[in-house]
Amino acid sequence: xxxxxxxxxxxxxxxxxxxxxxxxxxxxxxxxxxxxxxxxxxxxxxxxxxxxxxxxxxxxxxxxxxxxxxxxxxxxxxxxxxxxxxxxxxxxxxxxxxxxxxxxxxxxxxxxxxxxxxxxxxxxxxxxxxxxxxxxxxxxxxxxxxxxxxxxxxxxxxxxxxxxxxxxxxxxxxxxxxxxxxxxxxxxxxx
Length: 191
Prior knowledge:
Structural class: mainly alpha
Largest sheet: none
Oligomer: single chain
Distance between the termini: 79 Å
Strand content: under 5%
Helix content: 55-70%
Number of helices: 7
Radius of gyration: 28 Å
Number of strands: 0
């Protein structure tokens, strides 16, 4: 019911608001803060999807009269807009993708534990498997993002264009045998 809505909405506003405040104040941290806000929105949207799909048994009237549908309608598009903004900065692509991809499941799993009383396997092997899986996923995202064509193009300096030699010249000397003095490129041309 509605018992989960108030703390969930307050948490969403506080965390996303703090991320937006950091993004507005610090241009260097902007993409990372927006990525965290995106991951939080996506995590809450995933949690809301679970709740909406479980309410289909009660019919459309039940779906539209309970809060999860409306939470999904807010967090899905908000996450999408934040996601676009985080990637449009063009910096920190690998960390941005890693933050979004890891925050989404962590948030949705955490919400499921708190409000749906979900139980995770708690054996040491199961916990180690989850931690290792998250680490491998994060490293894979970083490696993939660093080798993306856009990033590779930014990291490879362009080759300087070769200057063509005039026709009929050998070694940069004019064909008529005249010796020319090289133009000084450090001083500006005067009209």
